[in-house]
Write a structure and sequence with these properties.
CATH class: Mainly Beta
CATH architecture: Sandwich
Number of helices: 0
Largest sheet: 5 strands, antiparallel
Structural class: mainly beta
Length: 120
């Protein structure tokens, strides 16, 4: 029977928001590195991620999901100005220490919050 442990994003300090400081793939901000270091079926991190745009303009956000090779792992969306928390990753799974990074068209205005359900 699988067990589930709710954990903070590895890029977060004490569960606080991760500020997206980068504005391109070369300086993307690390949001989470999968806790699960194996590829065994059923062992994975289920990632939930929300974005908050603190600026008065809409901002394009790019999530690099497990790879920085565009467009293999890119998830792109525009986060509306001052929209509050917007779901950007709805429980997608990740394993084998794959990394989630993010960058935005405008640096330092997108905050990412969320959690990981570590399934083992």
């Amino acid at each position: 029977m699988a067990t589930l442990q709710k954990r903070k994003l590895s890029g977060s300090t004490d569960g606080l928001a991760v500020k997206v400081a980068g504005n391109s793939t070369s300086n993307a901000t690390t949001v989470h590195t999968a806790y699960t270091t194996v590829t065994t079926a059923g062992l994975c991190d289920e990632v939930w991620l929300y974005a908050n745009n603190t600026s008065s303009s809409n901002v394009k956000l790019t999530i690099e999901w497990g790879t920085s090779t565009a467009a293999d792992g890119n998830i792109e969306m525009t986060i509306t100005a001052e929209a509050g928390l917007v779901l950007v990753i709805p429980g997608l799974i990740l394993q084998n220490s794959k990394v989630v990074k993010a960058f935005a068209a405008t640096a330092d205005v997108i905050l990412l919050t969320g959690f990981v359900n570590q399934i083992s």
